[in-house]
Automatic annotation (TrEMBL):
Enzymatic reactions: alpha-D-glucose 1-phosphate + ATP + H(+) = ADP-alpha-D-glucose + diphosphate
Positions annotated to bind alpha-D-glucose 1-phosphate: Y115, G180, E195, K196, S213
Name under which the protein is recorded: Glucose-1-phosphate adenylyltransferase
Nucleotidyl transferase domain boundaries: 23-292
GO MF terms held by the record: nucleotidyltransferase activity
Amino acid sequence: MIHLSSTTTQRDSTHRLSNQAMAFVLAGGRGSRLEELTDRRAKPAVHFGGKARIIDFPLSNAYNSGIRKIAVATQYKAHSLIRHLQRGWSFFRAERNEYLDILPASQRVSEHQWYMGTADAIYQNIDIVDDYQVEYIVVLAGDHIYKMDYEIMLQHHVEKGADVTVGCLTVARDEASAFGVMAVDENSQIVDFLEKPDVPPASPDNPDESLVSMGIYVFDWSYLREILIADAENPESSHDFGHDIIPLIVKDGGAYAHRFSDSCVMSGLETEPYWRDVGTIDSFWQANLDLTSMIPPLDFYDRSWPIWTYSELTPPAKFVHNQEGRVGQAIQSLIAGDCIISGATVSNSLLYTGTRVHSYAQLDQSVVLPKVDIGRSARLTRCVVDSDVTIPEGLVVGEDPEEDAKWFSVTATGITLITQKMIDRRSAAQEG
């Protein structure tokens, strides 16, 4: 693992492999396990950390790694994602040979064909990638939370002479069945790639652990180009990297694993590499609340590896009233700009931009997305509140799971998702 400092980037930039690479971010998926949070937006566009969107993490990793040519493939309900990219990532300058292209599914191959898989998303844009005139392509998922220096992975790829280098995580072997799992030899060559196996192969370093794919791949572009063309002509293929492309290369002996621990970015506060797939309500809630810890497992304040995003112009957060039983306060919480905590108590929670919390309300262990209005005397515990929701006065959620489940979406671990449609449905039933 690497600990960045002011000396980390002293290497001659003209010899950085990232200068010869482009990042292709696959950001077209809905993320249905996030339930109603993705009814209006693709998973990569979901808010995270009080300011950012999920897609800002792979984009920031690419930019901080020195990659200045980036393409983002979009498909499902892409408007909010495209708007965010236009507002927050418009600082690339063509005169400096910097590019960020947004590539919506646009029936470029056939008027009846959208992106049919992760590999097909790149195949349909081969001519655009050709225009970048790059040696290497870094294929990224657009929906994970982590900090990683792709330059180190590029170096590993070149040193091994690999056809593909696959980013991998170490997880407990009894949890690996939920992932694509790699069996590797002592030289990190991948000898088998299994999609969600019942009996995952062990890591050569530890029999109780397995290596699982992060959905990050490095290729020589000339090689990947040929593979994609051949795959597109195969009627039996699902045109997916994990199901088709990577297993094929593994059989040919050209696939190598790159461990995340070798290139993760840690500021000195983190105690171990941090990577999260925030693809469920539970994991989304937990990853956001991780940031409220005294020493968070992911350092969001690391200036040497910033998470770039759209910086909305907002007034500061405001806390008002200081009367007995009516004190505006936040304890071990993150409060974004343009929030007003008016005689309410917020604890162990994360509030996004423009939230209003009115007098006598109480929030505990809750994640509140932008522009939410929380009425007087409401009590929310272990909740995720979607954006633009109005919480009625006196509403209590998180204390009676059976009652909550009548109106809201409650996970098996007791996290409650609240959307405006759910609130409206509850109000209509009570009025009726």
